């Protein structure tokens, strides 16, 4: 039987130099992976846009009448194309965030207008799942200092999360003027979450604990949303009364 000294002799601890070399190799592999993912994402966005565009034209009758069954199939094509485009946008942003290369162009931005545009963009997805979709917002503008493209990306990720984890019921979007802050929220009647899950919600590659294999997703949307909100000097958080009781996701930014 080997004693402890023999075991240590046969399996010596790696030297600091060897560890540093392994770490450098892993970091290089990670950079290569990120570059390939980003390249693939960029290359796929345009073809997907074309696929969705033609599906929409067919569904709207631009190439002749379509039956109810054909309309349903074309809606599914549009839905899938939108999902893939959102995923590709997340992959591209994740690479930039990991490498510290995320660039923002801040300007005076109307949060109410961004919310309206984003809600309009998911109406088709909500209709496909027969979900009630509602937006509550002031009639006047609420301005924040933000990068409008990236802030809209945050809103889209939160709405996408609500769509995925709400099998039936409703999604309610609200924009509020809270004194010195603007607050955006998305409330759903979906799967909810346990108290134990809350601290990990915005971590990379974390998905809802009730999702199982039935719900498609990358687990990076909320992580990216948090990174963008943090870069804007804001706060992002979630609330839920428990599993099966729905969720509300919030973010707040200082008003401009």
From TrEMBL:
Matching SUPFAM superfamilies: ATPase domain of HSP90 chaperone/DNA topoisomerase II/histidine kinase, Homodimeric domain of signal transducing histidine kinase
Enzyme class at the top of the EC tree: transferase
Record keyword Nucleotidyltransferase present: no
Domain of life, per lineage: Bacteria
Record's keyword terms, sorted: Kinase, Phosphoprotein, Transferase, Two-component regulatory system
Pfam families per the UniProt record, alphabetical: HATPase_c, HisKA
Catalytic function, reaction form: ATP + protein L-histidine = ADP + protein N-phospho-L-histidine
Gene Ontology molecular-function annotations: phosphorelay sensor kinase activity
Enzyme Commission number, as recorded: 2.7.13.3
Domain Histidine kinase span(s) in chain numbering: 39-256
PANTHER family: HISTIDINE KINASE, TWO-COMPONENT HISTIDINE KINASE
Name this polypeptide is given: histidine kinase
Organism: Candidatus Liptonbacteria bacterium RIFCSPLOWO2_01_FULL_52_25
